[in-house]
Amino acid sequence: MHMMKNEGIADRIARVGAAVVLGLLGAFVFSGVLAVVAYVVAAILLVTGSVGYCPAYKSLGIDTTKK
């Protein structure tokens, strides 16, 4: 299965930045279930930002790349 990129560079940078912030919040501010949720969301943002593909964007027909 070939995944076409559907995230532009600004989108990808924002996702990775948000992942870092959520990871730090999970480590130093949140606790319990909220920390786990922050880690899970951070992981999703980090992966999607790294590969440039978001399945939710695909299902919603969103594409932030410049074509």
Structural account:
It is a single chain. With 67 residues, the protein is mostly helical. It has one domain (9-60). It contains 3 helices and no strands. The relative contact order is 0.25.
List keywords for this structure.
67 residues; elongated
Write the topology of this structure.
Layout (H helix, E strand, L loop, with lengths): L8 H20 L3 H20 L3 H6 L7
Helix pairs in contact: 1-2
Task: State the secondary-structure class.
Answer: mainly alpha
Global outline: elongated
Please state the average pLDDT score: 95
The count of β-strands is 0
Instruction: List low-pLDDT spans.
Output: none
Which band does the percent of strand residues land in? under 5%
Number of domains: 1
- Major sheet description: none
Number of helices: 3
What Rg, in angstroms, do the CA atoms define?
13 Å
Helix-strand string: HHH
User: Helicity, in percent?
Assistant: 55-70%
Distance between the termini: 22 Å
Q: Can I get a quick summary?
A:
By secondary structure, the chain is an all-alpha fold.
